[in-house]
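Figure-free illustration: sequence to structure, shown twice.
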Amino acid sequence: MTGLTSKQLKNYNDHGYVSPIDVLTPGEANEIKTEIEKIEKRWPTELDGLGRNYVHMISPVFDKICHNSKILDAVESIIGKDILVGGTTLFVKNPDNKGFVSWHQDAKYIGFEPYNWVTAWLAVTDANEENGCMRMWAGTHKEKIREHKDTFNESNLLTRGQTVQNVPLDKTIPNELKSGQLSLHHPMIVHGSTPNRSSSRRIGFVIQSYIGTNVDQVIGKVYVQQARGVDKFKYHEHTKRPVELMSKKDVALRTKANEELSKIFYSGAKEKGKY
């Protein structure tokens, strides 16, 4: 196993994230982009709204990324050898688009406890300040869960527009990544991203999240895959890996999974958004 170096692990523990981690070649990353474009062409609405979630359940290309040994080696350095894929999300920002991600903590709304889990953010295309890369408020993972305000802003790419107020921008750090690079961040770190002001698409494929097998879902139900090790706890329903793109059986199961995920994301909310 080639996991995180001692320096990388210290950065994660001290700052709440580690970046960049070289995972894919630009050519391998482009295969993901091609897969997205194929789905968008043949099934134009499949990745809209809730459809951006659990994409690894319907596509062998996305599934393969979730089980990439380089990623899993890095993840194992943080959460241990028994690893589940707890979900995936596509974050696509089209050119000159108003879409942004408000300041938030993943732990606030995802429902995984204890916090033995980590989110992996893979740059399918380059992610930089111009096209709206993530920004991290380093060190906030050591603090408490902050109050989030539901805004339901139409341009906010989060489900309910959940927002941490009064984040000092000058204390946040841009998490720039080249195509094929990855970052790992802690459930408690405050992070967000600005709109894409470039002339090209910015695409991120997010494993949200890799969870230790000791992690339960305390709000609702999720569907998982065994990525590494053994699941001795059996908290979640396990699914098989897809062998073809958009099989009827896989699509039906993903629809069910997304319905359950929506219940988690909107738990306690007064209304529902489009994601």
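We now fold a second protein in the same way, so the two outputs can be compared directly.
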Amino acid sequence: MTDRLMSDSTMLEKYGLKNGDSFDAKFSKVSIENIIFFTVAAVIYALESMFDSFKADVEQRITNAVVASIPWYHKICLEFQYGDELVYDEKTSEYHYPEVDESKQVVKYASVRDNASGVDILVSTDDNGTPAALSDDVLKVFKQYLNARKPAGVLADIHSYQPDYLRLQLKVQYDPMVLNSDGSMISDDQVFPVEQAVKRYVSGIIYGGVFNKTKLVDAVQNATGVVDVVLENVATKPVTRLEYMDITGNNAKSVAGSFSIQSLKESIKYVSEL
């Protein structure tokens, strides 16, 4: 502000000053002009500080706010610590664990689906790399945990099942120069490329995802020694059903969130010609 004053020709004329004069040399610390400039600068600084403080407060409130989205539900499912007590935080108005202990985080898989009245949640623990149902005791505590953390009024339908059984009927034309008639490699009869391809595809389906016939056929077709493949039938049986049911379309969604292949070796028929 002082520079603007000392460069303004009208003000220089009014004050009887010349170009090149400095403000500090011509005006004392207690002059009216100095006091006015100091007051204006102090007010501007105070106003900017207030704006900065308000912005920081709003950003903090946004950060602390619970946004109950599908990813948020998935995140808090995996944060569950069996055996630990939740603590209520007065500042954030949320429940949380005082310390994170990954050894107690027994939920390793979670699937959250939106419905008209709330959310459907599937959770599983891990058994040697495969989803497995939570025990009744753990599931009971998990439901209490989620009820404390979710927004009030939201209905959550929570389940944990053993994987759906998956039964296949595959006919595979094999290359006799590469594979034996039982599907094993000629170079190593302990390796079964087709079985490995099926297991790899099924285990690679994302938890809560969809089984796709076309993708299974593609996986088998790309296995070593496979000339052609026909998928004759696919059937599933969740633990909630007594009988297998054929998949008539191209896709199937599991009840449990995952699949487990049954009698795979007996499900594959190797032929020299289709």
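Summary for the second example: The chain is about 35% helix and 25% strand.
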